[in-house]
Amino acid sequence: MTAVFIALLVLVAAVGMIAGRRGGKLDNIEEWGLAGRRFGTLLTWFLIGGDAYTAYTLLAVPGLVYATGANGFFAVVYVILAYPLFYLFMPKLWEAAKRHGHVTLADFAQAHFASRELGAAVAFTGVLATVPYIALQLVGIEVAISALGFGHSSWPLVGAFVLLAGWDYSSGLRAPASVAVIKDLMVFTVVIAAVAWIPHRLGGFAHVLAAVPPKMLVLQPGQYFGFATLALGSALALLLYPHITISVLSASSKRSVERNAVYLQAYNLVLGLIAALGFMAIAAGVHASSSNNAVPMLLTQMMPGWFAGFCLAAIAIGGLVPAAVMSIAAASLCTRNLLPGHAGGAGAAKLISLALKFCALAFVLWGRPGFMINFQLLGGIWILQTLPTVALGLWNQRVRANALLAGWAAGMITGTAMAWSQGMGALFPVLGWKGYAALWALAVNGLVVGIAMAAKQTLPAGAAKQALMTD
């Protein structure tokens, strides 16, 4: 099992390193961070799939089903909602970015609204939401390594960190894009084999479902609103994460982006099957101390040793690919929009990418895992506060940057306060309706933007002219 795991990691390490030798020079941020915008439809499909369906997806989604039942299937609903929204937003974003040479979403915001401050706010939000996400990919790798029998030794995780750092520094986006092909094929193989073999060993799907407590098979009345708002809010947030947007901007054409809005639906079927592994773990009598360990324990218990090693390698590689893209995306935001003077070169971005990954590694090695997982829930709350800027910009609405900044600040403060009051939880009650705090905060955001715009309109003529000048 361990030999198979190590062999596969060595393979993807080699693929990632070789990928950097292809294409243009990597001293330019557009080449390093977007691979020169040359990815075709198929490679873009693998890359976005590799970004969106991470190691944490392979562990947390079935783990949530294992722990709470049907409520964990909100992830399946949100990706179904995400791709129609993807079709509306992303081709327009790609077109604008290609026309004006934008590398990040913050570039678009800054240029469209002629506001460096608004671009910096979007960039800051993207980095803030991404670093804990990188840490959780390393948590997924750590869980896979622990299942091999290494316990909680930090050295294998440090080795994975070194591999990840080498990829990004030497190859940029080409490394995770190339490895994403291997990763996605491995994940498809694992899921199909597990769904075909494990229920067979357990006596069929009917036996699996019969072993699950009935109350876990359906949503309870008090969960309906929370489930729906989590699904909608997560679908909107997915489009705004920096690692998703740079994957889209690396596509070679608008047509490739439009096609992927359709083709990426294939992953939704796989995600539904991944979620079902949580029920299989219950039926198999898995007793995991943490829900994140449920799937690795199920696989090592039910699969032959060599294939269990293959499955655990798929989980680990499923963490390496998105972590690489996330750190590249966050580094691009820092150099393009937060650190003046480094917009065009990749040298500073490479160093920042290393620093961000080190911060994520420190979270895993010295942080409190429970706190980190809850902290990640803030990512969706934060990133969703950039939606008004992006949506209004894409549809060319005339909105003042100061109004958008005021709404962003109000949404960030409100969402963070809501999550903090719930012990870093994602759901917050308003008038008896317990829903995703990201949407409540987005409502406050939109209200403040509307009030700020209305206030400008009602100023006396002279004051309005002065306000225009100060904007």
Characterize the main sheet: 2 strands, antiparallel
Number of helices: 23
Task: Tell me the β content.
Answer: under 5%
| Form type | globular
> End-to-end span in angstroms?
62 Å
Binned, the helix content reads over 70%
Low-confidence stretches: 461-471
* Structural class by SSE content: mainly alpha
Number of strands: 2
The radius of gyration computed from the alpha-carbon positions, rounded to a whole number of angstroms, is: 22 Å
Average pLDDT taken over every residue: 86
N to C succession of SSEs: HHHHHHHHHHHHHHHHHHHHHEEHH
Multimerization status: single chain
Strand order of the largest sheet: 1-2
Describe the fold and architecture.
With 471 residues, this protein is mainly alpha-helical. The chain contains 23 helices and two strands. It has helices at residues 2-19, 29-34, 41-52, 55-68, 74-100, 105-112, 116-150, 155-171, 174-202, 205-211, 214-217, 224-238, 242-249, 254-263, 266-283, 294-302, 305-338, 347-366, 369-383, 387-394, 401-421, 437-457, 461-470; strands at 427-430, 433-436. The protein has a two-stranded antiparallel sheet. Strand 1 (427-430) and strand 2 (433-436) form a beta hairpin. The radius of gyration is 22 Å and the shape is globular. The N and C termini lie far apart (62 Å). Mean pLDDT is 86; it is low at 461-471.
Q: What order do the helices and strands come in, and which of them pair?
A:
Layout: H1 2-19, H2 29-34, H3 41-52, H4 55-68, H5 74-100, H6 105-112, H7 116-150, H8 155-171, H9 174-202, H10 205-211, H11 214-217, H12 224-238, H13 242-249, H14 254-263, H15 266-283, H16 294-302, H17 305-338, H18 347-366, H19 369-383, H20 387-394, H21 401-421, E1 427-430, E2 433-436, H22 437-457, H23 461-470
